Amino acid sequence: MDTTLVLHGLEIVAFICVSLTLIMQLWSRNNEQAKINKRLPGGSFGLPLLGETLKYMASMKTSMPTFMAEHRQKYGEMFKSKLMGAFCIVTTKSDTIKWVLAHEGKQFVTGYPKSFRKVLGEYTALSLHGEQWKSTRRFLVNSLRVELLKERIPMIEQTVLENLNSWAIKGCVSIREETKTLAFNVVAQYLLGSRLKSGPVNDSLRNDFYVLTEGLFALPINFPGTNFRNALEARARILKTLEEDIVSKPRPAGDEDQYVDYMDYMRKENLPGTTDELLREKTRCHILGLLFAGHETAASAMLFAVKYIMDNPRVWNELRAEHDNIQVSKFEGGNLTWDDYKNMRFSQSVITETLRLANPVALLWREATEDVQLNGSLIPKGWKTVCAIREAHHDPEFFDHPHEFNPWRHQHEVLNPAKKPPLLAFGGGPRYCPGAELARAELCIFLHHLVTKFDLKACETEIVSFFPVPMFSNGLQVRVQERDPATKCSQKIMAY
Ligand code: HEM
């Protein structure tokens, strides 16, 4: 037989075999996918590439976001979706969310979207997992511990007073701007001592954090003019400022400095592969992450607390009575103490209710490290699990009239303990916010001086929205006046 003919025949056989194998593989993969799909909860992946991202963002930019509630109604408490470029299972029920958060490092690890990790950096706590995260976490918990916080109460009070005293002079203020400045100054001093107290470096850093926040959950399109690109550039400027304007300058005597402390600590931890250059980069990134996490969240909580107490005279009066009582109990207007803070019970409920309705963190992101079976549905390995805490905070099963601002619902003595509302404002499980107590203390001190010294009046009607963070259309413009002397108390107020 002609050898060319034989070779030709063999080629055809080989071609058929390869094609058959490919078809079989494709078929089995489709089969596998079909089996997985059957085990996924209901839901929709939305548009190709974009998924449901734009739909979610558009909903969060309104005053009454309905994306999650509508999906929950249609598909149940867990549903599949595609958000920020990732296939995900969204959970909206507090029990399920708590379970997911509690299994950090086991079935789940942190899984924030690409834009978030790129903008905040790979070395911030929320991007790290495994041993690197554990050692950073130990440092965080230690540096934000209660004993240290107690010592810093005078510093926080001083910073609050400096900020608030300028309000009355200005007359009409943007509460968003003012609370951003205040919260930034508190956390900057907490971390870096007096170096960042005020001035042009402080101003430029704060402005860069505005830009950075806008890009955190933007589509990761690295093109001039996009929010993502602007945020990356802001990040680079922040890191440069930290290195050149803060760290390289001599530390004032008596200042604490978490930058140096973190570097020393990580050097001692001696994680494999850590060069000196990498250590400096990690440290800058760590401080950037803390400055961000510590001020954007607390500022947002202060902003919304102001709005809610202004809109609810009964709350304002009860809050004022609580703080007037504390004030008259002090000798000649002495400074606030840790015990005073611990006595601000109604204020704590106001803060909790503010965070329930307008938590600065709407979604917590995890990634499944293995196939997880949850509530009868599958979360496939490698998929994101999105914990919708804002939605859980509006669950009518736990919160009557969930859209109403009602701080009294958190006063546990009047609650049936079995129905204690599930609060996830500071997360849960091993990643529970290490700055929660600092944030609460700062907010309480802020409320104390606000309601005891000033009367507030809204300047205009503003529209609220919740993306990328909760905010008001004009930053909440408020007319601030010294408190009417007729309402000042000279005696302890007994009944409130
Ligand atoms: C009202 C204010 C605050 C709110 C609502 C808040 C909320 C949260 C939430 C929900 C988490 C968990 C994220 C997750 O599990 O994925 C978290 C983590 C974190 N928070 Fe806060 N936070 C606040 C204030 C602060 C402050 C003042 C600091 C520090 C100065 C801080 C530092 C951090 C850090 C470093 C983490 C990451 C912890 C880890 O990954 O182990 N936060 N925060």
TrEMBL record:
It comes from the Eukaryota. GO terms for cellular component: membrane. Keywords: Heme, Iron, Lipid biosynthesis, Lipid metabolism, Membrane, Metal-binding, Monooxygenase, Oxidoreductase, Steroid biosynthesis, Transmembrane, Transmembrane helix. The chain crosses the membrane at residues 6-27. It holds the Pfam family p450. SUPFAM superfamilies: Cytochrome P450. InterPro entries: Cyt_P450 (IPR001128), Cyt_P450_CS (IPR017972), Cyt_P450_E_grp-I (IPR002401), Cyt_P450_sf (IPR036396). Its cofactor is heme. It is a single-pass membrane protein. Its main location: membrane. Heme binds at residue 433. GO terms for biological process: steroid biosynthetic process. It is found in: Membrane. GO terms for molecular function: heme binding; iron ion binding; monooxygenase activity; oxidoreductase activity, acting on paired donors, with incorporation or reduction of molecular oxygen. The keyword Metal-binding applies. Belongs to the cytochrome P450 family. PANTHER family: CYTOCHROME P450 26 (PTHR24286), STEROID (22S)-HYDROXYLASE (PTHR24286:SF194). This is Cytochrome P450. It comes from Physcomitrium patens. The gene is LOC112286276.
